Amino acid sequence: MEPGNGTQISEFLLLGFSEEPELQSLIFGLFLPMYLVTVFGNLLIILAVSSDSHLHTPMYFFLSNLSLVDICFTSTTVPKMLWNIQTQNKVITYECCITQLYFYTIFAVLDNFILTVMAYDRFVAICHPLHYMVIMNPRLCGLLVLLSWIMSAMVSLLHSLMVLRLSFCSDLEIPHFFCELNQVLLLACSDTFLNNIMIYFLTGLLGGGPLAGILYSYSKIVSCICGIPSAQGKYKAFSTCASHLSVVSLFYGTILGVYLSSAATQNAHSSTTASVMYTVVTPMLNPFIYSLRNNDIKRALERLFGK
Q: What number of CA atoms fall less than 13 Å from residue 304's CA on the CB side?
């Protein structure tokens, strides 16, 4: 295939994890249950929050949004991977690849924003408890989530449009199980300097900025908790944000830790492993973290199932 613009490209080949049929069957048997647990676990969180009036608070409003985003995030990549393994057909059309890239980017950025908003919510709840319901009113909560969606959609649209302007070489094999932006850019024959600059700039702005906000919020939270005189008061204050802190640590820890190691080795397999960690493992563990560490969620689930 001669290099050309994006509209002339017919398909990409997703190489996935392995060419061996036995290993692919093992991967299918592992990822299908993980995907189902992710979907049903996060759906339970959404149902518990929506069905229990005691959970109609800003904290659980953001949690239900996080669960929705996690379902969508995982669903942009895993079903296609499972389908490719089952049918032994690793082809994805150019249009589907760009579509997958667009929605994957939306939910990856949105996950980042929602976690940041949740950190701000915990900061207000612990550091300004008397003004919490005034500050975190329904209008502000809805506005924060809406702005997160709009900004994520704009960032994703920008990346997708910049990929559409590229022309591609004849060897369109992606050493991954989905169309990741960096891997797609490596196949381009045209200059990707502007694309790479935009990736670094937006990653620093939309990744480093929210992370700095989360760290600042928790530095203030820790300071406020240390000022509480009683040990019981400190434990109660910390328990309200322990689940969120665990999820934040898991999300950023897997991205930073695994991707830094894969960048050092420049290994495609390491990059795939990194993607699995935060596209599959983290969304799957989030419902367990919130249900096991949160008595309100436990009671809501018990009432939901009539126990």
A: 19
In angstroms, rounded to a whole number, what is the distance separating the alpha carbons of residues 219 and 183? Answer: 37
What is the dihedral angle through the alpha carbons of 177, 182, 187, 188, rounded to the nearest 10 degrees?
A: 140
Tell me which residue of 34, 177, 198 sits closest to 92, measured CA to CA: 177
Residue type, 239: S
Residue the block writes with tokens 């647990």: 37
**305 backbone dihedrals φ, ψ, rounded to 5°:** -100, 10
Query: With pLDDT > 70 as the criterion, what percentage of the chain qualifies?
Result: 89
| Residue listed under structure tokens 């045209």 | 190
Whose CA is closest to 6, among 99, 94, 104, 105? 94
Spatial CA neighbour of 107 closest among 149, 159, 158, 136: 149
Beta bridge mates, 93: 11
Q: Residue 278 carries which DSSP code?
A: I
Say how far apart CA 106 and CA 108 lie, in whole Å. Answer: 6
Indicate the residue type of 241. Answer: C
Q: How far apart are CA 215 and CA 232, in angstroms?
A: 24
> How far lies 198's CA from each of 93, 101, 111, 156, in Å?
25, 15, 20, 12
pLDDT of 246-304, one tens digit each?
A: 888 888 877 776 556 555 555 566 667 677 777 888 899 888 888 766 778 888 888 87
Phi and psi at residue 12, to the nearest 5°? -115, 160
pTM of full prediction above 0.85: yes
Strand partners, 13: 91, 173
* DSSP assignment letter at 266: T
Mode of pairing for the β-strands spanning 173-174 and 11-14: parallel
